[in-house]
Amino acid sequence: MQIDEAREVRTTCPYCGVGCGVLAKVAADGEVTVRGDPDHPANFGRLCSKGSALAETIDLDGRLLHPEIHGRRTSWDEALDRVASTFSQTIAEHGPDAVAFYVSGQLLTEDYYVANKLMKGFIGSANIDTNSRLCMASSVAGHRRAFGSDTVPGNYEDLELADLIVLVGSNLAWCHPVLYQRIAAAREKRPEMKVVLVDPRRTMTSDIADLHLAIAPDGDVALFTGLLAYLGQHNALDRAYITAHTAGFGQALFAASALDLAGIAAATGLSEDELGRFYSLFAATAKTVTVYSQGVNQSSSGTDKVNAIINCHLATGRIGKPGTGPFSVTGQPNAMGGREVGGMANMLAAHMEIENPEHRERVQRFWNAPAVAQKPGLKAVEMFQGVADGRIRALWIMATNPVDSMPDADAVQAAIKACPFVVVSDVLASTDTVRHAHVRLPAAAWGEKDGTVTNSERRISRQRAFLDLPGEARPDWWIVAEVARRMGFDEAFSHASAAEIFAEHAALSGFENDSARDFDIGAYARIDGEDYDALAPFQWPAPSPGTPLWPAGHLPLKGGDQLSPPLSPTSDIAEMSDAQTLPISPLEGEMAGRPEGGAWARRPEGPTRFFANGNFYTPDRKARFIAIRPTIETRTSPDYPLILNTGRVRDHWHTMTRTGKSPRLSQHIAEPFAEIHPADARHFGIGDADIVRVSTVHGEALLRALVTARQRPGSVFVPMHWTDQFAVRARVDALVAPITDAISGQPASKNVAARLERF
Ligand code: SF4
User: Fold this and answer.
1) Last residue of a domain, one of 57, 83, 99
2) Which among 96, 376, 472, 624 is placed 20 to 30 Å from 10, CA to CA?
3) What is the tens place of the pLDDT at every residue in 440-473?
4) Which tens digits make up the pLDDT trace of 317-340?
């Protein structure tokens, strides 16, 4: 294979919120290879199995390459005209709230920005929501309640500086593997670092845990309110910080003290001894980071869980300082970018609030918009209920597969099938969602499109194109802008490039924004195509003028070996042993500091730290404690005596539309399974590797039994990835109830009453 060096391109992995830098090379014969970018501050050269296999997933097999109307190939002009005229007609006849966009954390920030602008500023509805609603909406709501803004205070470096890391509802080893590797490497250097894992299952992440708390499903509110009460009782509070920088502590402590330790033990399913060990460790360790993910967010009490965690950090002043903080890690590569441009039904652009008339008026003036939305729109679950009951009559789905991934997925499928007009922009021709589209629009895929993404530590990185657009595929921002222009909004959607959109987004962020005065937003608002091409990863907001832009052209790439860890040996479900862990790539020596050379070594200021001296985004600049009472949630019944918990496996992503293309990735776990405790297996007469039927009131799935003591008695874990395209009756989201958190609207995908039988 002859490598065309000139075509090696810096980009980022499209899978998870870690946001790893990737170097992609295209050989003269078109073959693509990837390796981790040694200069990217998220991964310093590491990639996990999914990132390493990216080159195996970019062939054109199954691609949607031309616009189609009712399955017939057509021209872009005809397809775009049809979308624009049908949306305009629907709005004219039924009002702006009769249309909706359902978008995705797979979109780049520029795509998200344009879609949000069209819906909220020009159509005049806020009916734009995203599959990120299923991922981190509870964190957004919790941040806003506590900090006055959706601001994630954590940095990856804090994970290496902490003396205690509490992982809550997070199988980091499989779901954010490079962060797991960074923690494992830091711990090897500093064995005194402690890790506590809070998870109903003993997952691969428990390999680095000193203490595993196999908590009852949704026991987290009780666990962390109990911790707050313990901190109060044991004189472990930072009273000076509480006084200077917070409000509402007294009420929060009073509410948290509703249960004694025995009550907390009953609510969490943990012993008083386990609670005591965790609570005393937390109380005694000043440098503590609490990392949380979907086990916290995907819950009917998700927002309260987030605030119960944040309360403990505020009470100890452990926020905004190196090695401390509550830290929500996001599932998707651009969940954060979507939040920043307001790509959710209850947000406005640039972190402004849709309920705030001043914010609405400011956005209206900036966009010169005719019809800024006046109220929040329908959140994901409500949106598809709106499609089902006819309130939504024209729906545009971008870069996501809700027929397989939404809760109550069969009902969602029926709603989409019955909707009068469905547009899907996608890279694939035949996902379970694309099949129901009246108009199919071929979108550019990873490697073909340009833009930015924001990772879990608010680091903005470029995704760069290194492949030509195949067929007639186009970037999502271009497709949305073309429809907007055909709807009569020519001037506002005349963007010629992703760089122009990025500059407009930055300009809006700084527009009449007092909070932005300390940051160098102007430099980004004036960015031109050349600087955008050279944009180095940076944390937002940029702390000072001169934040690095790589020199025009290219930062010289380092040579060197493939730095990514190899894929682990093939294992099938029966070989999934306790000892199985991800390999650690050979970079441990570099992980705790910045690498030598390269743009980031020149950066003196270190990570952007929010809230170092308080200064929250509330009117009085004080953080808010939220008064939360410990709760016990019971969903089981005699007919449905078990709890279904859904989640990811290491080597697949979402509904496998991309990872399903790689035979190597599919070898890790070859088929969907139901993880069952031996006691439950005995009770239901199920043997290891039997086929079992898992059912709920919403649906059923047929799965291979994996009987293991790693599982908590009374719970069943089923991965979320497999669809009927890959296995028989394996769409687990068809089983998940459309129950949501009342504040965030995030579905509770980890606590569904279920039953089990041998098939
Ligand atoms: Fe990609 Fe996430 Fe793996 Fe990094 S950790 S290579 S971003 S999937």
Assistant:
1) 57
2) 472
3) 999 999 999 999 999 999 999 999 999 999 999 9
4) 999 999 999 999 988 878 777 888
Atom of ligand 1 nearest to the CA of 48: 3
Q: What is residue 561's predicted lDDT score, i.e. its pLDDT?
A: 26
Q: Are 541 and 593 in contact (CB under 8 A)?
A: no
User: Does residue 235 share a domain with residue 167?
Assistant: yes
Q: How far is CA 104 from the centre of its chain?
A: 10
Residues 260 and 317 placed together within one structural domain of the fold? yes
pLDDT(64) > 90: yes
Ligand 1, atom 2: closest residue by C-alpha = 16
Residue with tokens 């998200």: 112
Query: Alpha-carbon distance 123 to 671, whole Å?
Result: 44
Q: State the pTM of this model.
A: 0.91
Distance CA 186, CA 369 (A): 50
Quick check: 318 and 282 in contact, CB under 8 A? no
What interface predicted TM-score (ipTM) does this complex get?
1.00
Considering the domain architecture, whether residues 306 and 389 belong to the same structural domain is answered as no
Given this model, what pLDDT does residue 246 score?
A: 97
Mutate which of 12, 15, 332 for ligand 1 pocket (most atoms within 8 A of beta carbon)? 15
Instruction: List pLDDT tens digits, range 538-554.
Output: 887 665 444 443 332 22
144, 275: one domain = yes
**CATH code for the domain in which residue 742 is found:** 2.40.40.20
The answer to whether the CB of 178 falls within 8 A of the CB of 18 is: yes
151 CB burial (10 A radius; 0-12, 13-18, 19+): middle
Pocket test for ligand 1, best of 16, 459, 668 (most atoms within 8 A of CB): 16
Q: Which two tokens stand for residue 243?
A: 């006084």
Q: Is residue 112 part of a domain?
A: yes
The residues near 439 (Cβ < 8 Å, ≥ 6 apart) are 67, 68, 69, 79, 82, 83, 421, 422, 423, 424
What is the strand order of the sheet 99-103 is part of?
Answer: 72-73, 68-69, 439-442, 421-426, 394-398, 99-103, 128-130
Domain residue limits at 416: 68-131+336-539
Residue 627: predicted pLDDT: 98
Is the CB of 178 within 6 Å of ligand 1?
yes
In angstroms, what is the span from residue 21 Cα to ligand 1's centroid?
A: 9
Give the C-alpha separation, 706 to 573, whole Å.
Answer: 7
* DSSP-based three-state secondary structure for 25: strand
The domain tally of the chain equals 4
User: pLDDT > 70: what percent of the chain?
Assistant: 89
Task: Write the pLDDT tens digit of every residue in 258-297.
Answer: 999 999 999 999 999 999 999 999 999 999 999 999 999 9
Check residue 259 and give left, alpha or beta (phi > 0: left; psi -120 to 50: alpha): beta
